[in-house]
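We emphasize that the prediction below concerns an isolated chain of 324 residues; any contacts that depend on oligomerization or on bound cofactors are therefore not represented. The input was used exactly as deposited, without trimming of termini.
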Amino acid sequence: MMTEKFLKRSRRVTQVGFILLIFLIPVFDILRYDTATKELFLLGRVWTLGLKAGFITDHSLTGSLHVAVQFFLNAVLPWLVVLAIFPLAGYIGGRFFCGWLCPEGTLFELSDYLTLKLLGRRSLYGKKPNDPELSRPNRFIFGMLALLSMIVIPLLGGIALTGYFVAPRTIWHQILTWNFTFGVKAGIIGVSIYILIGSIFVRHVFCKFVCAPGLMQMLFGWASPVSLRIKMDTSRIAECTDCRGCEKACFMNVLPRKNKRDISCVNCGACIAACHRELGEGKGLFHFQRGEKQSPLVQEAATNGDTHRTRQKGAIDDAAGIKA
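Result of the prediction step, given as a token string:
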């Protein structure tokens, strides 16, 4: 059962786990390009086109065919696979990656939380209707956490991402000896500035309008008949207390109770957890659903509920007419 605690803990585990994966990928040569040796490392091995020695001098049909096949298998096909990852992920899971794995999304959520604790709103630019009400018991502590995050997180991100182009052991050696080459220095500083500016001033605007993987997931998830979505159980809509907890929990400014596909929804499940908190564990109105089609039981319940409400409304109108 999707309880509030299970959803929150599961999402934090996947977010932190994916960040650790991003840090470890270049360390173990799972994927990185070494600018010093001009070599691409993939799964611990140097990736080559697999061309035979002297292929340039072989002008025969066999030689040309060998070059074409190897180029397709080792250059074109892998690139097509990489390009297909996010459209396929969107077709199956919608924007699930954005809500459960994306490192930038995780950082933006942290920035929202710290801003909320310090200023009482998620955004630097003003309070929004769906901003939750949180207590601010000790602004000094959260101010220090925000300052520490602004220094440590961009630097660690700069070191990790620069490791995709310079051997990580080389980077850490230069850090420990405080003797940097221009490339390492430029990489760490450039990425750190990007992360700092994005986390302070841009945040989820980047997710909505700029991020290419997010936009691909959005488009393919929107068109897919089977993509993962969050739906509201309309047969139980009368149980809604109008607490607006689902709206306040959504950092993407989605209105979950509209029960329509919203391109900004990242399937994070925050609205599901909020509804469980309001109505009781296991009694929330929201759930994950594959595609738009409801099960026959849900459809029947929704139809019966609509019929009952229509009859009830008709009785109320008739009573009002008699009274008049």
